[in-house]
Amino acid sequence: MTDQPKLLDCTLRDGGYYTNWNFDKQLVRDLINALDFAEVDIIELGYKSPKKGGLYRKCNDRFIWDVLDNVPPVNASLAFMIDAKDFIKNDEVDYSLLEDTIHDASTSPFELCRLAIKIEEFKHAFTIGAYVKDKGYKLIINVMGISLLNDDDIAQLGELADLELEALYFADSYGNLTPTDVRRLVDKFLDFKIPVGVHTHDNLGLAFANCLEALNAGTTYIDGTLLGMGRGVGNVKTEQLISFLESQDLWYKSKPVNKFVYKWMKPLQEKYQWGFTHNYLISGLNHIHPLYTQTLQSSLLNPSEIENIIKGLDNPETFDITKIQDKMNPKVAVIIPARFKSSRFPGKPLAKIKGKEMIIWVAEIAEKAAGKENVYIATENEEIVDVVKNWGYKVVLTSDDCLTGTDRVAQAALEVDADIIINIQGDEPMLDPSDIKKVIQAKIENPRHVINCYAYLDSTEEVTDKKIPKVITNLNDELIYSSRNPIPGTKTGNGKKPKKQVCIYAFTREELKEFTKDNQKTPLEFEEDIEILRFVEKGFRVKMIELSGSTYAVDFPEDIKIVESRL
Questions:
Q1: Alpha-carbon distance 435 to 300, whole Å?
Q2: What's the pTM?
Q3: Cα distances (angstroms) measured from residue 39 to each of 64, 186, 192, 306
Q4: Which structural domain, as residue segments, surrounds residue 391?
Q5: Whether residues 293 and 257 fall in one domain
Q6: Residues 182-216: pLDDT tens digits?
Q7: I need a labelling partner for 348 at 20 to 30 A (CA). Which of 200, 262, 337, 460 fits?
């Protein structure tokens, strides 16, 4: 191992691929404090780029000074990264972009710049690097896509020594290096008589092992991100490196960073879901750009579908979202449960509203939202089957012992080819098609949430009405609880206007499978007679979408006249 390794953390730069380079300001201040106290040598706060993106894509000097305003003096060096391709137009360096983006180090909070280049940008590295150094910054060059380079490509990198670099890095961009590969590359880079740096990705689960091999081979710089947050599968974990170096009787301290990870990084990982998957392994082994897998995994496609897509890509080394956009459009089906044997209103789906069966009113609403070919009625009753087919709608005959409407939808979904299943109630003839579309979009944007809806009680509705499930949500509009009793309670009884549940749902087939797995109601679901609580009790996050509140459910025969008057 090199006598004095230097540790760089690039959480805000590489993690920005998930957050669009937006981070809570207090998170950043806590991160700087924790890393500095842990004696990390360099903290990279993001990019300086003329491209679109959040505040840490720009790292504007004035903004960073403001962030640092309430931070104690920092011993670590602060760094930013620039990407060579951002400053090249028509195969020439655009100096106007450099001048607009990178200002004098004498007035900047930053001490160090890392320049990322691909081999085809090699000749421009001298021009951009010289500009950066002329502005007073120390310079590190990161060579991207190292596994694509041959020995001749690597040999010419030695010419970069003329820039008097702090270090020359190679990045395992596709995450397919092994410790043997790393040692071979470090040996070649050491021939250039420049300190060597290594950036590892964890596609093969070897990021930490590769760092240890790099250190043993004589690497000076290694970098990581907290909890491994980074593009695609992510990187070696900074806290893992700190703990290892601390165990070697070096000066690093793991305790402050571990506290930060627990407070800030765990919730981010839960939200963005980076980390090892089989398809990141596949992308690493096949030199597939990590953003393909990252983007596809944020959709509703299943792992097998994603694997087939990434294996079929042409020129997969370069990310081009247009290659996968059409494959990410989810298939949507609306399934309407229609139970004939309603205890409160037998035969309810076939009750006539202005001369037309209620189930057909609902089907026509669904048709406007998703197209007739994507609408299915799920029922246990042959008479309902005949009526539905007569109107030209698809029908799935289910068993007559389904516990709830959602159980019936889950059973029907086994026969329906769709990525998103929308459940609307067969007794809601006043739904707005635009609300159904809103729910579909919410599911696309929140693929790891079950989707349900709420509206505020109107002047004709009583909070004490047990026909109306009331809901309470957290600050992220996630369902906390639902009850037929008045909630939330207040000391004075004069709380805010209550929210009522609107029964439009969105799930995946896998979520429905988990819902029905035990074939029994959960305790709170049973007590309240509200099926969405089964998802909550099973640990699912339920995103509640606000709707207009113009619906009215038919629970009793007398509700028909109310609906007809409103229609």
A1: 20
A2: 0.80
A3: 20, 25, 29, 41
A4: 332-566
A5: no
A6: 999 999 999 999 999 999 999 999 999 999 999 99
A7: 460
